[in-house]
TrEMBL record:
Record-annotated HTH lysR-type domain positions: 1-60
SUPFAM superfamilies noted in UniProt: Periplasmic binding protein-like II (SSF53850), Winged helix' DNA-binding domain (SSF46785)
Matches recorded under PANTHER family: HCA OPERON TRANSCRIPTIONAL ACTIVATOR HCAR, TRANSCRIPTIONAL DUAL REGULATOR HCAR-RELATED
GO MF annotation list: DNA binding; DNA-binding transcription factor activity
InterPro entries: LysR_HTH_N, LysR_subst-bd, WH-like_DNA-bd_sf, WH_DNA-bd_sf
Protein name in the entry: LysR family transcriptional regulator
A Pfam family per the record: LysR_substrate
Native organism: Amycolatopsis acidicola
Family listed: Belongs to the LysR transcriptional regulatory family.
Keyword Ribosomal protein among UniProt keywords: no
Keywords, in A-Z order: DNA-binding, Transcription, Transcription regulation
Length: 298
């Protein structure tokens, strides 16, 4: 079935005017070519759409049904150029965002709300991925923007810090450290069993903990990749753990959060990450919308 935009316009005009002459005048054309347009449209559709009589023109049952979709098609066609311009300008379309599970505790919601407030016609598609998988997905063009942990290859990717926060200590309820009455220090942790992070699946946090606290192999109870798993293992009294402060927003029975003393103030970083070769026009508008968030970090 093939019919033209002009044929649809002609049919809708005749259907609304109920008169070929008035419809032709409305379309700034003469009546004979309008009649030929309608004939070609009826042939393409395979059904009679209009009936003429002495009182003018009336729609057949098929014409009544076709009119609904004809108007819809014309509306969509009318919107198409504007939509294309808005997509090209990065104001519409979609942006695919990868994020680490830990970012959902805090900054992810602010990022999404900021984008939606400033770019309401942009569709947001989310993928929960560890940093390594985000890097692969960005390189393959499967996502446009990541919320990931450094370091990154500066030749392939651009990045911008979007959030910094302290570490806190997560200990089981009733643990001796929970009774210190002061922030915990490295000396307080020397004999403790530590739940730490996988060097492969959670490399950033693994290396961060190693830098902050020399951890002997015999002091490692478990090494896992997800922060929520770390916290649940602490609740099960399998050891203690370092977690980002935003994780304290989780409600988990059986754990306590302790401040740390003698450690860097805000060692946990989260960055916006994108591939330099990205061709999605929405990426630049999203990055501009997020500038106030990144500007806070200097």
């Amino acid at each position: 079935m093939r019919f033209s935009f002009g044929q649809l316009q002609g049919f809708v005009a005749v259907a609304e005017e109920r008169h070929f002459g008035r419809a032709a005048e409305r379309l700034s054309m003469t009546q004979p070519p309008l009649s030929r347009q309608i004939q070609k449209l009826e042939h393409a559709v395979g059904a009679r759409l209009l009936e003429r009589d002495s009182r003018g023109v009336r729609l057949t049952a098929a014409g009544e049904a076709f009119l609904v979709d004809a108007r819809r098609l014309l509306t969509l066609a009318g919107r198409a150029p504007d939509l294309a311009r808005r997509v090209a300008a990065g104001l519409a379309g979609s942006i695919r965002i990868g994020f680490t599970g830990a970012s959902a505790f805090g900054v992810l919601g602010e990022v999404l709300n900021t984008i939606s407030d400033r770019l309401p016609d942009l569709r947001l598609e989310l993928s929960e991925l560890v940093t390594g998988d985000q890097i692969t997905a960005l390189g393959d063009g499967e996502i446009d923007l990541g919320l990931a942990r450094p370091p990154f290859d500066g030749e392939i990717f651009s990045s911008r810090p979007v959030h910094r926060e302290p570490l806190v200590l997560c200990v089981p309820e009733g643990h001796r450290l929970a009774k210190l009455g002061r922030p915990a220090t490295a000396a307080d942790l020397e004999s403790e069993q530590l739940i730490t992070y996988s060097p492969d699946r959670a490399r950033y946090f693994h290396e961060l903990v190693i830098r902050l606290l020399p951890v002997a192999h015999h002091n490692v109870a478990h090494a896992v990749s997800q922060i929520h798993t770390v916290i649940w293992l602490v609740a099960a009294r399998r050891g203690i753990a370092f977690v980002p402060a935003s994780a304290t927003r989780m409600t988990v029975d059986g754990v306590r959060w302790l401040e740390l003393a003698g450690f860097p103030e805000n060692p946990v970083e989260l960055h916006l990450l994108w591939a330099k070769h990205s061709t999605n026009p929405a990426l630049s508008t999203v990055l501009k919308a997020l500038e106030p968030m990144t500007a806070r970090l200097g």
